[in-house]
Write a structure and sequence with these properties.
Strand order of the largest sheet: 1-2
Low-confidence stretches: none
Order of helices and strands: HHHHHEEHHHHHHHHHHHH
Number of domains: 1
CATH architecture: Orthogonal Bundle
Distance between the termini: 13 Å
CATH topology: Farnesyl Diphosphate Synthase
Shape: globular
Strand content: under 5%
Helix content: over 70%
Structural class: mainly alpha
Length: 331
């Protein structure tokens, strides 16, 4: 299973992502050395940088070829990535996570209070950068942060609830994941000066891709290994977060009742592993995979007006790569 960023295969984009990396470190500069160390911890650990990649690609989506991105576009990608980074700090506190991207989590290394404050610092830096670009981008990032919180609250609302509905699941992932990927594409398109129709099409791509992305992530959480994920696998079920594969399996006429009797409470890893096998037997993974593919197709359908552009081709490749990540683990 490859988790590399397909956008890195485009030489100009790879160079732009290197510029993003440099600006991420600039963004967390402060004379408070402890805060700087904490805020740069996950940045230094690396990552696929899908969100800034989408911002840069969207800015260039109307052009036949890639050219080096304008500095403002790079900053737009940085702002979106800082929001993502800040949300990870908060997520790891809520999950009591011990690792992230194969390194010790911030909360595990420095403590919950420090992780929360550093996450807030990253969100603040993102807001400063967004405001320097335009009022529209600043409003977009502010609205996106609100949506992230809404989506996360919706998830917590149904923690350990075996009656969680698909509707509640999709509303949650639309807020906690899809909104930020949509914002990445929209930010790039706005700063890149695209026309309004194309801005809306790229926003639709980002949102549909984001929903597919989260479904895939939820499948992988239950099917991949710790090493493949770069974080503990199967954590959602242990935390009482029942995602689409589990919701589908809970409604299965043969295996649903048995699975329901296991869940709805704190469980150990042995019960989790048994429950995962029930989800597989109930076709929870394959069923969820079909939904991920449908949303990925919706994403690529939004790129019709970018059929002959390098940016459109790169975004389509990203959607195809997303689905391929999970194919071998589901079938």
């Amino acid at each position: 299973m490859s988790s590399s960023n397909p956008l890195e295969a485009v030489p100009t984009l790879a160079e732009d992502l290197t510029r993003v990396e440099e600006q991420l470190h600039v963004a967390v500069e402060t004379d408070n050395e402890l805060l700087k160390d904490i805020a740069s911890h996950l940045i230094a650990a690396g990552g696929k940088r899908v969100r800034p990649g989408f911002a840069i690609t969207s800015a260039a989506a109307a052009s036949p070829d890639f050219a080096p991105a304008e500095h403002g576009v790079i900053l737009g990608g940085v702002a979106v990535e800082l929001v993502h980074q800040g949300s990870l700090y908060h997520d790891d506190v809520m999950d009591s996570a011990e690792s992230r991207r194969s390194v010790e989590s911030v909360n595990s290394k420095w403590g919950n209070h420090q992780a929360i404050l550093a996450g807030d610092f990253l969100l603040g830096r993102a807001s400063e950068i967004a405001a320097s670009l335009s009022n529209e981008v600043a409003q977009l990032l502010a609205s996106t942060i609100s949506q992230l919180c809404d989506g996360q609250i919706r998830e917590l609302e149904y923690q350990f609830n075996v009656d969680r509905t698909e509707e509640s699941y999709f509303k949650s992932i639309d807020g906690k994941t899809a909104s930020l990927l949509a914002a990445a594409c929209r930010t790039g398109a706005i700063v890149g000066g695209l026309d309004r129709d194309r801005i809306e099409h790229l926003t639709t791509f980002g949102r549909s891709y984001g929903i597919a992305f989260q479904i895939v992530d939820d499948i992988l959480d239950l099917t991949a290994t710790d090493e493949q994920l770069g974080k503990p696998a199967g954590n959602d079920m242990l935390e009482g977060v029942y995602t689409l594969p589990v919701i589908r399996a809970l409604g299965h006429e043969t295996y649903g009742d048995q699975l329901r009797s296991m869940l709805g409470q704190h469980i150990d890893t042995a019960v989790r592993d048994e429950a995962r096998e029930l989800v597989r037997a109930a076709d929870g993974f394959t069923s969820a995979h079909e939904d991920a593919r449908r949303y990925a197709n919706e994403a690529t359908d939004a790129l019709t007006s970018f059929a002959d552009t390098a940016g459109g081709s790169a975004l389509r490749a990203a959607a195809d790569h997303l689905i391929s990540r999970v194919d071998t683990l589901v079938y």
